[in-house]
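Exercise 7.
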Amino acid sequence: MDLAAEKKALRRELKQKRKNLLESYRHQADRQILERVKSLELYRQAHRIFCYVSMAEEVDTRLLLEEMLAEGKIVAVPLCREKGGMEARQITSMDQLKPGAYGILEPKEDTEKLDSDSLDLCVIPCVACSSSGVRLGYGGGYYDRYLADFKGMTVSTIYPYQLVDFQPDDCDIPVQEVLICE
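Solution. The predicted structure, written as tokens, is:
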């Protein structure tokens, strides 16, 4: 089996595990991961943070986004573009989000685009992450392309079953920190 097929099979397996998580566990784990993000020294010092908007079974970032906004941080979320491109768009309220590509909540077009050089921290989703920080994304390469020039700190948030060592591609950009619940 080639590397692309192995990754596709791993994605399928882990997405199924994700669907089978109990809601009570997910809620408790999401709160714990939120606290781990907030306990990072870089998070506390960060003024500008780029964070994904979670989909149904991902580690829920909505509470984190709301808390960052309440703390007065400059918050950017992804706006997907054609051909795997992605922009960081500033939001000042969760009301500025609408369903976009793949049904994921995205910022409205009139939100301000932020340059990646201005961002201190990037909180990134994944299907799996290795112990060395290599992420297995959803296969579109959006974050790998975005992170190729990103200079700030990168973090992925995962549930324990998502910590999996796998063979990365040359284009896979590792994150600097993997935050996991116990």
